[in-house]
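Folding problem:
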Amino acid sequence: MSLMERGAVRPITAVAWTSNNSTCPKDFIMISITEDGSAANFTRSFAIKSGYYLCYSKDLTGGMVVSDIQLLSDKDTIPHGYCFIAEHLEAKACVSKKKRVCMRVVPVGSVDTAVLDIKLTAKSKMMLQHYTYAGEINGYVLWCRKGPFSNPMPQAKPRSVSLDIRRLSLDQTFPPQPLRPSNPPPQPHGKVSQRRHTLQIKDNLDKPADSSLQGITALDGVPFSLHPKFEAQANGTALQLNSQLNNIRIKSLQDIENEFNYTFAVEEIAAKRTRPSLPAGGVPSDQ
C-alpha cells in the first residue's frame, strides 16, 4: 500500500502561476516537466521570451488546504467558494485568460479529504492511474489526486535540563543532602517579629492539611450510636442531673449582698485599740 493510499501524505495548500525558479515563492514546488517528459512552460510563442509554470505548496502553517481544483473558460462564472490561483510572474509575463485555474480553499479541520497532488501531461491520450482529469489548458492536461491526508502533530519544544538532573547517575553515589523547604519562611527581625513568626507557625500547624475550613478525618461519614447497655445508665444520669438542675436557685444581686455582706466592724474595732506601752525594763506595768 502506497503512502497516498494510507493517507500519510500532506495535502496541497496553495496553487499559483510563476515565471521561473526566481519568482517562485518560498515553500512552493514548480512543475517544470510533464509526466511524459515535455517542458511544462505554458507559453509556446517565440515572441514572448518569458513563460509561466504551475507551482504548488504543502505548507500547513496557514491552516488551509485545497479541497478541489477546476478549469474554467473566460465565459464561465466562478463557483461559490472558489477563487482564481495567484500569479507570481515577471513584469512582462502574462497568463492566458481563455482558461483560468481556480481552486477551493477550506480550513484544514473542516474536511477529511483534499487535493494531495497535481500533475501535467502534454498528450491528452495519456492516462494517469489514481488521478482525476481536471481539464485541458494551452495543450496541457491537468490531473488531480484526491484522498485522505495526514495532519502532522505539533512538535513539542525541547526542555532545558537542569544541572542537578544532568549530574544524576546510577554509577555515582553522593552523600545525602539535608532537606530544605521549597518556600522557606521569612527570617524574623527583632523580638516582636520572633513572636509573630512563632504564632504563624502555630497557626499553620493547627490548620488542616487540605487548607479547607474543616479538615477531613477518617471518622467523617461514620454514624455514631450508643451501645444499648449504656443507654439505661445514661438515662439515669440524665434524670439525676435534671433534678439537681431543678433544685438550683438563681439568686439576685440583692440576695447575694444580703447573704455575703460583711461590714468589717471587728477589724475596725481592732484597729482602733491602743497598744500597751512597755517600760524601760521590758516588763509591762500593772494598771
In short: The chain has a mean pLDDT of 76. The two ends are 145 Å apart (CA to CA).
